Amino acid sequence: MMLAPYLTAGAAVIRSNFHRLPRPYKLTLALTYRCNFHCRACRTWCRPPGDEMSLEELEKFFRRQNYFSWIDLTGGEISIREDLPEVLRAATANSRRLVLLHFPTNGYLTEEIVKAVRAAQRRPGLKFVVTISLDGPPEIHDRLKGMAGSWERALETFAALRRERGVEVFLGMTLQKENLHLRRETIAAVRERIRGFDPADLHYNIAQRAFFYDNLDLDPSPGQAALAVLEEITPRFRFISGPRSFLERTYLRKARKFILDGFCPLPCQALSASCFIEPNGGVYPCTGYDRPLGNLRDMDYDLTPIWKGREAVKLQEEIVGGLCPHCWTPCEAYQTILGNLFGKAGRHAHSYSPRKTTAE
Questions:
Q1: pLDDT, tens digit (0-9, with 9 covering 90-100), for 265-274
Q2: Is residue 258 a contact partner of residue 265, using CB atoms and an 8 Å limit?
Q3: What are phi and psi of 193, to 5 degrees?
Q4: What is the largest CA-CA distance in the chain?
Q5: Which of these, 64, 187, 217, 263, could form a disulfide with 354 (CB 3.0-4.6 Å)?
Q6: pLDDT for residue 349
Q7: SS3 letters for 185-230?
Q8: Alpha carbon of 82 to those of 44, 51, 133, 312: distances in Å?
Q9: Is 66 helix (H, G, I), strand (E, B) or coil?
Q10: What is the three-class DSSP state of 67?
Q11: How do residues 275-296 score in pLDDT, each as one tens digit?
């Protein structure tokens, strides 16, 4: 295993506990808002087709920003992009410090997804993770996703990726009102289809509102009914070793507090260790805060002027102070957990007093 990228990533995580980083180690990049599903909890599929960055633009971006330790590629459904294999190759080939590449998918386009995964550059020390959305047993899943036969296709993709070397594949269940109490039924249905399925390969998050999902007019959250379910799920991760278990266990434990009071339970790391870029190159603090800071196309695909700009620095201070819409999604929560490992002793901002803005 190549240790240098891990040492670099570990150093960035530790520094993020004490001050704003000179550049982000975590990137969430939406490749498209297009989607072939009509999910009830998400409305990205309602967005009109946008002006997505081309492969050439993305290649230029990754060449200029070759320092990310952690990249999440998301959508929409990224397998809709015909150039996804080339995009994954550009991300992995240029990001020499990369230790984690992850993308979620609905799993419907099995052949395209497997082809893209095979195109990504593998190297020792690079963890490549794919999460396939599965929101219940077959009938419930298909209804929540708005696509007949989607459950079977998701499991087909899951089985296919499990046969690929150098790839970790999981199922991701978004807890919402309709599926909140169907965890056991979901696991049983998967076990009938996938021999030897380990329930530890089913991960959980909470449905919530965000401008990224274009669902601010909805209320997809399961509400306080989720508290008992989270209480049941959380202890399971005590018996799984490694950083993944720590992050998921902490996420689920803190999710209870988020559900009770509606505030991010820790000082957020948005614009301190991470940022979000939408398909047209627009740069935002995160997937939950609709505060555009600039566009890569106006900066010759260089993130640095935006990241170090006065507006980004000021907004980061406001976010750490709790002046944001507040969310607790894994794509934002995990680096926030890592950025608060030392509690108040490591906190690099003024005392955290979460306050919601009218941006909700």
A1: 999 999 999 9
A2: yes
A3: -95, -35
A4: 55
A5: 263
A6: 46
A7: HHHHHHHHHCCCCCHHHEEEEECCCCHHHCCCCCCCCCHHHHHHHH
A8: 19, 15, 20, 33
A9: coil
A10: coil
A11: 999 999 999 999 999 999 999 9
CB-CB contact of 303 with 274 (8 Å) = no
The two three-digit tokens of residue 191, written as one number: 């076990």
- pLDDT at position 242: 75
Q: For residue 279, which of 70, 27, 33 has the smallest C-alpha distance?
A: 33
Token reading at 80: 């809709």
Joined together, the tokens standing for residue 252 give 């689920």
Residues in the chain: 360
- Hey, what are 142's tokens? 């298909």
CB 355 within 8 A of CB 323: yes
Residue with tokens 């608060």: 340
State the DSSP H helix or E strand holding residue 171, giving kind and residue range, or none if neither: strand 168-175
| Among the listed residues 182, 169, 75, 170, the one whose alpha carbon sits nearest the alpha carbon of residue 135 | 182
Distances (CA, A) of 178 to 111, 128, 268: 30, 31, 29
Beta bridge partners of 169: 130
Give the end-to-end CA distance of the chain in Å, rounded to a whole number: 44
Q: Is 277 exposed, middle or buried (0-12, 13-18, 19+ CB in 10 A)?
A: buried
Q: What is the C-alpha separation between 254 and 318, in angstroms, rounded?
A: 21
Give me the residues paired with residue 295 across strands. 282
